[in-house]
Amino acid sequence: MPADEKITITVISPHRDDAALALGLAIERWTSDGVHVQILTCFTISDFAPFADARTAHEVTRLRQQEDQHWLNRLGATVSMIDLGGIDAPLRVDVRRDRPTVDRPLGPRDHEAMQQLTAQLTALQTDGLVIAPLAISRHVDHRIARDAALQVCDPQRLAFFEDVPYASLDPSNDLAGVVSEVQAKLGRRISPVSVTRNPSPADKRRLIDVYRSQFTSDQLDRIAASAADGERLWAVAGGALHTARYRRKCAALCGSDK
Ligand SMILES: [Zn+2]
Questions:
Q1: CA of 244 to the centre of ligand 1 (A)
Q2: How many whole angstroms from 93 Cα to the centroid of ligand 1?
């Protein structure tokens, strides 16, 4: 592949599992197609592992790192993951552990986390397409990750993934409302682009099986089943995702706009 064809995709993953849950099939195709995929994982210090024996933050943080590593091992050398070392919401602030998230105004420690993440994203000087969460369900960590990306990145280089499992398992999710919120912040309209062709729920199930500290087997089955509809990004018209360079490289994986 000529050097000028080499493209980079950066995925901003709020937590250890978000990139794989939302874009596992697409990332697998991108990497096998020679795209350099970089995953920036934001809030990696965690004591949230409801389906594991690990209890302390040290144990859980290590376990979740191992889960991500098992996923990365399947993807090969074209993926790099950077641990940004943020403290996730249940440890950072006084929130309900089962739902530390929804429509909660940002507090002082959230603003500190946002400033830290914004500085980290600025220092990393990401190249190419940057994919941030839409923050469906309005999880506070996902909103911080999204809004930091909005502060740092040119809207032309940004795309947004549909957060899983919220997009697929939560019937009360407000996709339209979140899209409107992002459009207001961007001052531009965004539209969905499918990034998986002939998506296989069985393949998705195999990929996400590593995240057993976070989900029951039944939940993983349901998340994988929802992959039958494909994985989608949302992006501005005329942005990086729509340029010939990306479309050419992603032709095997990007479906037509819906
Ligand atoms: Zn998350």
A1: 31
A2: 16
At a CB cut-off of 8 Å and minimum separation 6, what does 253 contact? Answer: 26, 29, 30, 33, 195, 196, 197
- In CATH, what is the architecture of 3-249? 3-Layer(aba) Sandwich (3.40)
Compute the distance from residue 181 Cα to the ligand 1 centre, in Å: 19
Q: Is the pLDDT score of 192 beyond 50?
A: yes
Closest Cα to residue 190, out of 159, 148, 146?
A: 159
pTM: 0.92
Give 170 or 149, the one with higher predicted confidence.
149
Please give the structure tokens belonging to residue 13: 């993953």
Name the residues around ion ligand 1, CB cutoff 5 A.
Answer: 14-15, 18
164 CA to centre of ligand 1 in angstroms: 8
Characterize 85-111 residue by residue with b for buried, 16 or more Cβ atoms within 10 angstroms of its Cβ, and e for exposed: ebbbbbbbbebeeeebbeebeeeeebe
